[in-house]
From TrEMBL:
Lineage: Bacteria, Pseudomonadati, Bacteroidota, Flavobacteriia, Flavobacteriales
Binding-site list for Zn(2+): 570, 574, 672, 676
Keywords: Aminoacyl-tRNA synthetase, ATP-binding, Cytoplasm, Ligase, Metal-binding, Nucleotide-binding, Protein biosynthesis, RNA-binding, tRNA-binding, Zinc
InterPro entries reported for this sequence: aa-tRNA-synth_II/BPL/LPL, Ala-tRNA-lgiase_IIc, Ala-tRNA-ligase_IIc_anticod-bd, Ala-tRNA-synth_IIc_core, Ala-tRNA-synth_IIc_N, Ala-tRNA_ligase, Ala_tRNA_ligase_euk/bac, DHHA1_dom
Family the entry assigns: Belongs to the class-II aminoacyl-tRNA synthetase family.
GO MF annotation terms: ligase activity
Organism: Flavobacterium cheonanense
Primary gene name: alaS
Protein's UniProt name: Alanine--tRNA ligase
Length: 878
């Protein structure tokens, strides 16, 4: 049974059981401050388990893209070395929100596996929670009794808290779970050793495929459990493992989920992958297998993350994506001998394979390909730089053991993998101090944990059962009551308090727009609200202190100055999006945005730099829309289908409900929950400040509106006045500047002529200083010239004599530079290489460089090293 058919069978089965089938949420979570990535099937439903929202249906099923590479759930280092861990995986899930419970969940799980998929019942084992007296949680007798209808007692395993009690985190909904495991070993292996003894023992062929979680409790901050008001079911089945069981293989990578990708890697690299059925493979073949598994796994995670809007970067979620991709590149570089970008070529295979169920990978295929290709090229350059740095470290090492701290510096600062370092050192007869490396790594992790450490107390509920209301589209202040509060302590921000109101005018951060600031005012005091965010469907108002009387009535007042400036920038973003699509083409899609009171930032897909003329057209188009005084047309709760039919733009990577908010300004129509001006005339003026690249195929524009534009023009006027004063207040400034430029050009020509004469003079002087060493005309000198002039001199002297080896150094702006010229006949006959000379001698000036075999240049930091570099140059001829 093909993987596509298995997925369909699952969804059809649960649809027949009254479940609403919903699409996968984006793999990247943009509006959940507690998670970077969707790491489980239930993540998108957290608000329902917490009682902060109402689902579309009490029964839901889907297949969810998940990513586990950070935090509590981190499988990254296992990926590739075994056959069943992945960074990105699909989780088939069915949920009940206060509807059915254990009986239906387990009955249907068994029915689907054994009657629909017809898996061998004799290969299945189940587990139930053994109970935990210290937490007053009883043995799960109900689950035991249900399973006894289907299996014998020797196939039911009692699991402890670690294996059979599932928790969303340190706090929140949790409960006992019942897992289903399958034994995929041969009949002979099963006869020799019982599968029961291998359950939860990390055996690669005795694996968990389905977990049924029964949400009954809420874990409080003090560790205690309280009963939830309603019982829920949260199940998750590993799609890749299920495919392994259905396709009679013993490795996820031998299923058709991965084989098309593996075949493409084989085709590109020439290396062959051996399936898990092949036993006793050589050590070299095992390394090849691991490398190919790493690559085909990681490209899925990276490609889907980019398609959902997360570009690789140096911080946050972007750093995680970059780290995954670099791990894949490194395995190809080391074990598959790939020195050019190639992982990007797998995206087409992935899009063809998964585009039916996940259309985003098909529609974003070109962008994903471009971004991955650029990242590959960049990291391959980093690896090359790391090799040079490693050579320097080795040269400075006495003995045969390199400092672990130095290896960590390469890893931490330059992204150079420690295992690649170890491999290269081994080839050179060196090792490194692993304990020192681990010590430095742990120190860094401790610093990182300390910086991000957050402790959150339980909610103190003042008004139970309240459902808060957002009224900020129509009001900027209103009367409110506090419904719940909690204290949050973090190393980064210190002690803050999160306040929830019965209704609020404060817009929570989301959709690129920053959260509102303002005050809560009572008869006796004023509390500053420093930020507003949304978490699990609750709008959280952040304050540095709580009111003395938290039960008092308050007036919630948004800072209208900040709100107004932000709304101008947000509406201008919509107008600019339309202008970009009209002027550059409909391929333009939003890939990220930031809207705050000071400026707007907009990332979009486009294949080349936006020209100055195109930017002027975009700016003019937006200002025309502003001058047209377009009235805001707002659709508060319009069915998403109707909004799309009206031409509204929906963004990939965003999660939309059945009903949406649609914003119209003339031809501009977008799905958006943000705050906007009532009329485009309120924006006053729009000005683009900068345009540049963010990643391959992604451009970024920053712009300003309103008062910021006034300030911009005022600064321009001030600058112009200062220029006039500097130029002695000429009648015609442009004519005066042009005259300066002409004078400057004449002076440059004079300087160039003087330099040429100086170089010619030095050339004539230095030619007489050549020494003949082993038939080679050798010269090594320091000269008093700029870097470019020294380069010209080296080439001029080198070409003046046959069989010449010229090495010149000079200092410019307190930085040393070196240049090497080698006659082409010496390059051919004696295998001399100017690039190697510069790399080796560059170590003495704390620098590096490169070039061609007959000419190369370098730059460094240590001027004092020039003397030794000049002295060592002759060694290349001996």
């Amino acid at each position: 049974m093909k993987s596509q058919d298995i997925r369909k069978a699952y969804l059809n089965f649960f649809e027949s059981k009254g479940h609403l089938i919903v699409p996968s949420a984006p793999i990247v979570l943009k509006d959940d401050p507690t998670l970077m990535f969707n790491n489980s099937g239930m993540a998108q439903f957290k608000e329902y388990f917490l009682g902060n929202g109402t689902p579309k249906s009490p029964r839901i099923a889907d297949t969810q893209k998940c990513l586990r590479v950070s935090g509590k759930h981190n499988d990254l280092e296992d990926v590739g070395f075994d056959t069943y861990h992945h960074t990105m995986f699909e989780m088939l899930g069915n949920w009940s929100f206060g509807d059915y419970f254990k009986k239906e969940a387990l009955d249907w799980a068994w029915e689907f596996l054994t009657e629909v998929l017809k898996l061998d019942k004799d290969r299945l084992y189940v587990s139930v929670f053994e109970g935990n007296p210290t937490e007053n949680v009883a043995f799960d007798q109900e689950a035991w009794d249900i399973w006894r209808q289907y299996v014998t007692e020797d196939r039911i395993i009692l699991g402890n808290k670690k294996d059979n009690f599932w928790e969303m985190g340190d706090q929140g909904p949790c409960g006992p779970c019942s897992e289903i495991h399958i034994d995929l070993r041969t009949d002979a292996e099963r006869a020799a050793v019982s599968g029961r003894s291998l359950v939860n023992a990390d055996h690669p062929q005795v694996v968990e495929i389905w977990n049924n979680v029964f949400m009954e409790f809420n874990r409080k901050a003090d560790g205690s459990l309280e009963k939830l008001p309603a019982q829920h079911v949260d199940t998750g089945m590993g799609f890749e493992r299920l495919c392994m069981a259905m396709q009679n293989v013993t490795s996820n990578y031998d299923t058709d989920v991965f084989t098309p990708l593996i075949e493409k890697v084989e085709q590109i690299t020439g290396f062959k992958y051996t399936s898990n059925e092949v036993k006793n493979v050589s050590e070299e073949q095992n390394k090849t297998n691991i490398a190919i598994r790493v690559i085909v796994d990681h490209v899925r995670a990276v490609a889907f993350a980019i398609a959902d809007g997360q570009l690789p970067s140096n911080t946050g979620a972007g750093y995680v994506i970059r780290r995954i991709l670099r791990r894949a590149i490194r395995y190809g570089f080391t074990f598959l001998n790939t020195k050019e970008p190639f992982i990007n070529k797998l995206v087409e295979v992935l899009a063809n394979q998964m585009g039916e169920f996940f259309p985003e990978i098909k529609s974003q295929q070109q962008l994903v390909t471009n971004v991955i290709r650029e990242e590959e090229a960049s990291f391959l350059r980093t690896l090359d730089q790391g090799l040079q740095l490693l050579d320097k470290v080795v040269a400075e090492t006495s003995g045969k053991e390199v400092s672990g701290a130095k290896v960590f510096e390469l890893y931490d600062t330059f992204g150079f993998p420690k295992d690649l370092t170890a491999l290269i050192l081994k080839e050179k007869g060196f090792s490194y101090n692993e304990s020192d490396f681990e010590s430095e790594l742990q120190k860094q992790k401790a610093r990182s944990r300390a910086a991000s450490e957050v402790s959150t107390e339980d909610w103190s509920v003042l008004i139970p059962g309240n459902v808060e209301t957002f009224v900020g589209y129509d009001q900027t202040e209103n009367e409110v009551k506090i419904t719940r509060i909690r204290k949050v302590d973090s190393k980064k921000d210190g002690i803050l308090y999160q306040i929830v109101l019965d209704n609020t005018t404060f817009y929570p951060e989301g959709g690129g727009q920053v959260g509102d600031k303002g005050t809560l005012v009572s008869a006796n005091e004023t509390i500053d609200i420093i930020d507003t965010k949304k978490e699990n469907n609750l709008i959280l108002h952040f304050a540095k202190q709580l009111p003395e009387n938290i039960e008092a009535g308050f007036v919630a007042k948004v800072n209208t100055d900040l709100r107004t400036s932000t709304s101008k920038n947000h509406s201008a973003t919509h107008l600019m999006h339309l202008a970009l699509r009209n002027i550059l083409g409909t391929h333009v899609e939003q890939k990220g945005s930031l809207v705050n009171p000071n400026y707007l930032r907009f990332d979009f897909s486009h294949f080349s730099k936006v020209s100055d003329d195109e930017l002027r057209q975009v700016e003019a188009s937006v200002n025309e829309q502003i001058e047209a005084q377009l009235q805001l047309v707002e659709h508060r709760n319009i069915p998403i289908k109707e909004a799309l039919e009206k031409g509204a733009m929906a963004l990939f990577g965003e999660k939309y409900g059945d009903s949406v908010r649609m914003i119209e300004f003339g031809e501009s129509k977008e799905l958006c929950g943000g705050i906007h001006v009532k009329n485009t005339a309120d924006i006053w003026q729009f000005k683009i400040i900068s345009e540049g690249a963010v990643a391959a195929g992604i451009r970024r524009i920053e712009a300003i509106t309103g008062d910021a534009v006034k300030d911009f023009y005022k600064n321009q006027e001030t600058t112009l006045a200062e220029i006039k004063e500097t130029l002695k207040n000429p009648q015609d400034i442009l004519k005066s500047v042009a005259s300066l430029q002409d004078d400057n050009a004449k002076l440059k020509k004079q300087i160039e002529q003087l330099l040429k004469e100086k170089i010619d003079g030095l050339k004539n002087t230095l030619v007489s200083d050549f020494q003949e060493i082993n038939g080679i005309n050798f010269l090594a000198k320091q000269v008093d010239l700029s870097m470019s002039s020294t380069k010209d001199l080296a080439q001029a002297i080198g070409t003046s004599k046959p069989n010449s080896f010229v090495f010149l150094a000079s200092v410019e702006d307190d930085a040393p530079n070196i240049h090497c010229y080698i006659s082409k006949e010496l390059v051919a006959e004696k295998s001399l290489n100017a690039g190697n000379v510069i790399r080796e001698l560059g170590k003495y000036i704390d620098g590096n460089g490169g070039g061609q075999p007959f000419f190369a240049s370098g730059k460094g930091k240590n001027v004092l090293g020039i003397k030794e570099a000049l002295e060592k140059a002759v060694d290349f001829l001996i």
